[in-house]
């Protein structure tokens, strides 16, 4: 119910579970040092395959056009970068003759922001035949491709283990095809492996895994056990579990061997338990499927599930090396031990041998230690031994004479077996809807089979009237459609979405056929019917529980409600006879909502079936773009008055079919669940509207900040009324997810936005820690109540901006009198389990915002004779510069998007009117007439109507090795590149460029103020971000708020400062201005390092602690800096940030992928980028030349007329040309210059 207020966009990898195969027949992992660089590189696809014999490549259809384009071995993997066409890796033929079942496993990774044009295809050919492509692996590809970037369900896959069981043959050849179109997108092949089992493979499916094992515990070790997990019904015959000694001279000895019998199989719930029956019954109340005393040793051991036929010896014998391993895990005490079968090694637990191991998620197997947690020495709840049990659909009545109000499904299996983790689904079989899951019941922890093995799901009224029986779980009448369908019992965890995927773990299934042609049935279920020309009434087993998965197990049921039906509930088996799902009637006793919520972090009634009554205070029932449910609250008269317990609850009805409205009094039956921290009523069995416009449920008054983080839990599910205005701290997700980050007044009552703690105080200091904690207590998410799918809900019109033309809503604006319901949910687009979650308010009354941070049409003046600016232009890429080359690697996808992006950037640059501008994130495509920087300068000059700006051309084809670069533009009329100096960059040490580079190459240039002769050096930087890790030890986030890669950024700051002491441009003037996106906030280590080297932070000098240029996670601070050398401090006349970007909602920027039409305005600079520009004013103190003093003698007199006459008719570059005579600065001396000079002569003192 509660969650951390720390939020970060998640980076994640998905690994498919896979079996361990015994023998590797062929492998390539590219780790051989001689393979480094093998492949094709750069223009002309220069090929180096010397010494490579077991694979080849083909890049004939790719287009490697730059030095940074390649298809070659990089860092123990084959990497494809900016391929612009398919590139193929092909193995030599691999001998698989005589090896029985063979398995192909390919490890693939990617890095970057991928699109659907980026693909990897895995294909194989047996015995020289046609290649067969593996398609849509793990739902991360499509019908034609194995893996596709940016698929709706793939979460931008970062890694995948693609696996295929190969047909029998003599040889196989493996082909892997890559295609991508940007240097920022890297597709990598890490390993190809072909393995085999034995010629006599086990009858057990290879996906049976060791799930849990208790090896040691407090007291006598009389409760040891191991638990297996796998597909329900999987036979274990042909498998053995062995424990292999890992200590001393006994290492590799088999200490335990357990051979499974023909009757042993994975239970209907997916489990099989073996262990000490007495201890398990006494301590956990369960009976194992196999009673034995494992007698595990308390020292280093490898547990392995192996094929029995592959074992040479038994207990006391050593390993032979021929073991065919299905799964293994090792438990470690100290470093002296040896482990086997490449098993993941878990432990030690502090200084001790672990009690045992249990999987983080049942059955989730990536063959890594991260799959496992430690077991509990104290025989506590962390240990969860689960015996397998039998379960079948025993009888079903789906239709009968009269109204269908006596339908039922009877289950039968192991007496007293619990049903938690199992679902009953009904799958449509007709037409275009075939495969849709029409009905779904998720059983909970309170529901179990009776003493006689029965459990009844059915219509309460009809069963009571016809058979005098109460079902264990009630369903509505007409639960079944009278057309072809499949009813199945499945593992709940295997269900994904509203349709059959093929990945369901099926316990039992039965299909009913209406006889229409073209109908579909699922899960290889026995198909019963039709009954003559009719849909069958149902089916019943001829013998309870007898299951051969064939039609012969069943007889067709009678339509007549006579004695031929025999529904049995758990109560008729000798249980308590009380059904758990009956809803009774409005006004009957119901569970109090506050009792369900409780005062703790989770509901004390989690997993229990409950009926509640309450007032609907928030209606979000839409299944297409809503929350798929509604919020109810106790009537005022029913509230408990306890401030620590919530009176509200979310009902997840997921299209149950009863429409409710705010103000309705409703009665709902369902199961109490915890959904990622949100207490809710789910698996809804009934919803009844008892009254409309009912008695009120008054919004609870709410005052923030919380006294402790997480205190909003006591309002979860309730309607609240904020008692004070809130400040908008971030609006980045407004157009994508309909969310705003709001901040309350602080503990002293001072309202305002949140600031990044490390922008205000050094990391790790008590002040920074205190501010981080205070920010968490002040934060609340305002959400539009639409569902956040993996790629956003993209509301249109955008909430609070209104229809086109929109208003703006800036960070710093305020909103008062908020009323809405509180829940706890996702606040970003990462996949379930990885996403950030926090408390959200869904408004039930329209919020009214007030302007608190108005736009400024121009930056504040910084005075001085010269202005220097820093501007991150957010991936300004211009394609090929000729209208083609789209989509670009990082920026605009189309020429229209480029035009939209460019208009805003140009508006900003024109208004800034700086004399020198340092740019970040401009395309690194050189300095020719079609380059991005030339394109941008041309656009600015075009807007100004004259050639006002030029760009610094360092004389290279690119600047550094990244797709983006820094750059400099300037006004030639105001400054020159200083004579005798060079434009230089640092590209050694910390700034080394190439595939593993960390920072963009800085650009350093010395300028001279026109006429005044004063020089100053500008250093433009873009340090490594806080996002993806460099891989350098110590760059991992340290938990102090500085994020990833702080060490590298600090090293960069020190290296830069040291290098600048060498006067790299050749200038001996000590005035230096360091600008750019340093990706570090004001009090973080990199900035402190520069300050320690003598540089002064000018944003802090002029804006104090209120400066900011960027907002992340609702907290403002400045990543964009202006630091000056000691000699320049007194010459700075001002510094400011122009807040045109980070305060604005991203939905108004140039992007057309998600932004609704009409929200973009190209006549303004607002949201030209995501960073705000920085401006610095300088007064260098030089003596300006006396205007009209052509001969430079310090006076304006007739001698100047003579000098001007001597230069008359000359142009720049002529020997006779005098710049001082070119009064109008047009490059030639003519009569117009004389006309301009004469008034100066007349005005002389």
Question: How do the helices and strands line up, and which of them pair or pack?
Answer:
Blueprint: E1 23-28, E2 39-41, E3 46-48, E4 55-58, E5 70-73, E6 78-81, E7 87-91, E8 94-95, E9 102-111, E10 119-126, E11 132-134, E12 147-148, E13 159-166, E14 171-179, E15 186-196, E16 209-214, E17 225-229, E18 239-245, E19 254-259, E20 271-275, H1 277-284, E21 290-291, E22 301-307, E23 325-331, E24 345-346, E25 356-359, E26 372-374, E27 391-397, E28 408-413, E29 422-428, E30 437-442, E31 454-459, H2 460-467, E32 473-475, E33 485-491, E34 506-512, E35 527-528, E36 538-541, E37 554-556, H3 593-597, E38 609-620, E39 629-633, E40 648-652, E41 665-675, E42 678-691, E43 700-702, E44 719-722, E45 726-730, H4 734-737, E46 739-743, E47 754-755, H5 757-760, H6 766-778, E48 779-783, E49 814-816, E50 819-826, E51 837-843, E52 848-850, E53 866-876, H7 895-912, E54 916-923, H8 932-944, E55 950-951, E56 964-970, E57 975-977, E58 1003-1009, E59 1015-1022, H9 1046-1060, E60 1072-1077, H10 1085-1092, E61 1096-1097, H11 1098-1103, E62 1110-1112, E63 1115-1117, E64 1120-1124, E65 1132-1137, E66 1174-1178, H12 1198-1207, H13 1231-1242
Parallel strand pairs: 20-21, 23-24, 31-32, 34-35, 40-42, 43-44, 47-63, 48-51, 53-54, 59-60
Antiparallel strand pairs: 1-15, 2-3, 2-5, 4-7, 5-6, 6-15, 7-14, 8-14, 9-13, 9-15, 10-11, 10-12, 10-14, 16-17, 16-25, 17-20, 18-19, 18-22, 22-23, 25-26, 27-28, 27-36, 28-31, 29-30, 29-33, 33-34, 36-37, 38-39, 38-41, 39-40, 41-42, 44-50, 45-46, 45-49, 46-48, 49-52, 50-51, 53-66, 54-56, 55-56, ...
